[in-house]
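Predict structure. Chain length: 107.
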Amino acid sequence: HKLYYEMLLNERYSKARPTHGQLVAMGTLISARIFGEETKDFTIYQKLRLAFRKISLPTTYQGLAKIGIKKEHIVHGLKDLKRKNNHFSDYFNKHNYSILDRIFAGK
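Prediction complete.
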């Protein structure tokens, strides 16, 4: 939810903006990938990605673009979260944003 709120504060989405569920799902997928990379267990990430595809939640930059989300929106929201105490700040204060490409650049 933290990423959701940062993105809503920072981005001027149109009337057909992404839904709360779409933004929270995106943040959940990022969290699951971070967990996978830190533990070397990608089971949760893979299952979430498959489930999201089955219910037509975006799992690629192309899918995100269809609901008005650009990569720079995600990066901007995550940069704002770096200043706060949360699992995103723990990760992104040590790493760059290339994990986003590992999540959303694929099929």
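Summary: The mean pLDDT is 86.
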